[in-house]
Amino acid sequence: MKLKLKGAGVALITPFKKDFSIDFEAIERLVEYQIQEGTDYIVALGTTAETPTLSFTERKEILRTVVQTVKGRIPVVVGIGSNNTMEVIEQIYLYDLKKVDAVLSVAPYYNRPQQEGIFQHYKAIAKASPLPIILYNVASRTAVNIEAETTLRIAKEIPKVIGIKEASRNFSQIMHIMEHKSSDFLVISGDDIITLPLMACGLDGLISVVANAYPKCIVQMIQSALDGDYQTARALHYRLLPVMEFCFKEGSPSGVKAFVESQGRAEHYVRLPLVDVSESLKHEINRLVNSMK
CA-CA distance, 99 to 246, in Å (whole number)? Predict the structure, then answer.
């Protein structure tokens, strides 16, 4: 499983209709598009899926739709996280995980636990989970950082934890993990725009927002870097750079949803408290999409 999760994964959006109900047909189309474009694996119910605005019933149905559409062709990772350890464990028991390959679990947010609390949180989750676990460190959203030494301790002492999605933007921290980790512990970028320079330091891949719109380019960039072909990877990075910048200029996933709508794959709607990107940015995105055809 660790080898299967090297490369390029997509943090799948949740497409909504105009009435803000979930567009399950669009989910099926988007999943099929990812598979046809060569994406290595799909992450359902991550931050990019607007999971905080989804009911648990909706989340279960989204996961069911993703799994049924994938039909075992590529791995599926599901996001299950909370600042309540017991809630994470309860959800692990309540989800149908039979055809899911791993759990992505974000650092417990808002209540700002100590590093020992973070360790014990993941130890308890690992004991309950039937699946491998990937840590998710994104301090800009959670207000808590999983420090490098804590990540390394978890990797050493909790075998069910197979890797980390690192979105701290702390180059020194990420490189420290890569230098001192065991060879089979995955370090995966959670930040499109800084992935390429970190690939040169030993990164194992990317869980991408931008791949919702341009999966083939992301896959080719990551695979080229893994193969040591940095000339190709660099060219693809700079081709995607304006896409990356526009995706996050006014917030995610509003930006990437505007790209997906411009491509005709799903509508742009986001649930409150998120709002659409501005009309001026939408115009720039449409212009960029047309120029990249």
Answer: 34
Show the domains of the chain with their CATH numbers: 7-228 (3.20.20.70)
Q: Where are the alpha helices (DSSP H) in the chain?
A: 24-36, 56-70, 85-94, 115-128, 139-142, 148-157, 171-180, 195-199, 215-226, 230-249, 254-262, 279-291
**Rounded Cα gap, residues 71 and 42, in angstroms:** 12
- CA atoms of 149 and 242, how far apart (whole Å): 35
- Sequential pLDDT tens for the chain (293 residues): 666 899 999 999 999 999 999 999 999 999 999 999 999 999 999 999 999 999 999 999 999 999 999 999 999 999 999 999 999 999 999 999 999 999 999 999 999 999 999 999 999 999 999 999 999 999 999 999 999 999 999 999 999 999 999 999 999 999 999 999 999 999 999 999 999 999 999 999 999 999 999 999 999 999 999 999 999 999 999 999 999 999 999 999 999 999 999 999 999 999 999 999 999 999 999 999 999 98
The residues carrying an active-site annotation are: 136, 165
- Please give the model's pTM, rounded to 2 decimal places: 0.97
Please report where in the chains the tokens 């009435």 appear, as a residue.
Answer: 19
d(CA 42, CA 12): 7
